[in-house]
Amino acid sequence: MVSPVRLVGLFLIIFGFFAAAGTALSRRPAPPSLQRAKVFYDAELPERGDHEILDFLAASGDPADAWCLALAEHAESHSNVSDAMLKQLNEPGQLRYKTLFAFVANLNQVSTVQESWPLLRDAGCVLERLHRDAEAIALLKKAEQIHPDPDQRLDILHLVHSLGWKTDFRALMADPLYYEEADPFLRMNYAQSRGEFVLAGYWLIRHQIESYQPGTMIAAAGAGLCWLLLMLQLGRVQNWSWKYTSLVPFALILGGLSAYATVFEISIEQRFFVFERYSPHWLLNLIYAVLGIGLREETLKLLFSLPVILLARKAEPIVVLALASCTGLGFAIEENTQYYAGDWGAVFARFLTANFAHMMWTGMAGLAFTDALKGRTSWGEFFEQLAFVIAMHGLYDFFIIDSTIADLAFFSSLIFIWVARSFFHNAHALRGGQKDKPPLLVTFTSMLGATAGICFIMIAQELGPAKALSGTAYAMAGSFFVSIVFFQEFARSHGRV
What we know:
The protein is an all-alpha fold. The protein is 75% helix and 0% strand. The protein has helices at residues 4-25, 34-44, 51-59, 64-72, 83-86, 94-105, 117-129, 133-146, 150-162, 166-173, 176-181, 184-193, 197-210, 214-234, 242-245, 247-272, 282-311, 317-339, 346-352, 354-373, 379-401, 409-431, 440-463, 465-478, 480-492. The longest helix has 30 residues, at 282-311. The radius of gyration is 26 Å and the shape is globular.
């Protein structure tokens, strides 16, 4: 038996190591970012500004004191924007920001002198954030005419695409000047609109790879490695032959590729079908969650796991379960490189939920396929299991994304706990009675401490150690009940309930 005191001590030691590293790293100057801007806004200027303008200022990459000053001066405006003021806009300082807000408030005084193009461009970006789309595009195009600039053409393309103005988007992309400046994401969508799906797939992969950030990649890989170690121990990897052990990296790679395929399928669905997320009606959200999210993700993960499953079809069922789960883990790692970019607190929360959920659902479907393939069960039972996995995934997401009835996210946790217990019950039955060394409970606690530490480091880089500690604690508190399930199930594997 492993005493709770020892587990707490182990967690604190591992977390403390990461926290010390995160505290040291946080002393380096950090560039302004959206997360830092929002914290500043909420803490210092709750009565001023606008979150939409704040988004623009934070994303603009200006020094922190500049966008903070702009927020502080937001309430001030000029009654007139003269050409004399416009000529000074290229010089750094608060005048540009004061004039920017005044300009947005006085669009009837638009000037087209050469010196006005930076203001026209920035005001267009602000208007975009304020959802004044036609005015935003007009200003951005005017700025581009006065001062032809590749970045402005890229901004115009992204705005027109985000608004869903398909005809305008295709017309702009047909212009070689605009196409040359388009990034892989825009080229992918343009290729899809022309039915060039192979070319679209190429630009999709380019877009995904170029969107990677070092910090998110490290965090996603670190959290993924923790679950990989846990899953391999759960699958009794020490008893595997080299043939099956060598399939682990193959399974992870295929899982990552299935995430690319999912993104590509989404883009195809958006062209040929009507799959609307965040619909104003709960029934449409439910249909989207099950037949959109659940169906495509679970089907594609299973499809990409088939090479591994077929190569391991003669292995013990626990080996097949673990390898299929590794494919789901590869999907989760790739998905996390996108989720972590906007919310470092998700590092810990997704470790206990989304990461394991993708592993669990793919593992269950993969094992059911192998059982049907080997004749242990019928193909009808396999399709029942696949339908169950799709439905549970869809319902799990539905209760998170739907807000038309009420805040029902609690039901997502109930679904997750119910399916997780079923998964562990099956895994324990397949593993037999052999004890683990070290116990799975110890491994899980160690990995939990490491993931909490990674979460701390990522937040500390943005907001400092104090807010990192509170942010990590908040993420852990939000996963408290889910954590209990894991502790109980991993304790059960060591004969302690």
